[in-house]
Amino acid sequence: xxxxxGAPEVNAGSMADIAFLLLIFFLVTTTxxxxxxxxxxxxxxxxxxxxxxxxxxxxxxxxxxxxxxLLADDNIIGLKELRxxxxxxxxxxxxxxxxxxxxxxxxESSDNPTKAIISLKNDRETKYGTYIxxxxxxxxxxxxxxxxxxxxxxxxxxxxxxxxxxxPETPSGVRDELKEKVKRIxxxxxxxxxxxETSTSN
Length: 202
Description:
Layout lengths: L14 H15 L29 E6 L5 E3 L2 E3 L1 H12 L26 E6 L5 H27 L3 H9 L5 H17 L4 E3 L7
Parallel strand pairs: 1-4, 4-5
Antiparallel strand pairs: 1-2, 2-3
Helix pairs in contact: 2-3, 3-5, 4-5
Protein name: ExbD/TolR family protein
């Protein structure tokens, strides 16, 4: 009886083709999530022609330390208090020139919404999630006040109007109608939000 030489060899000639097909399959079917990023405009490179004098009382300073604690106008506050305090500052109407404001008219706080500036500064070791959450609360303060005025003037929220206006699928006629309304509300409470240079903790 003849002796066998060994087990038959496996034909691996088509393995490269199979691997290539699997690679194409995963490339086609896999979805890659992309971050939308932050909607922020950088300041112009050119310095202003005239020096702008800003009163200290018209600046609402918010600081975030490396532990995520908030300091607003030299007072430690919780995250839930930030939006209310920012709204009180923006809506204060210290000089009495704002006819639509409902603030306390505190002489030590902002003169009116057009002069009010919110400044945010964080430590280099601040967690990214904390920083974004604080940003959202500040932007939320602007949106809440804008929604209030949009309801008073047009019977709908500003955020809905803005979303419809910015939607590329919105008909041009509707967008033209919304453009003036959105700009008017933005002018009532202009978003003067300054993000100061980050600091390093000692």
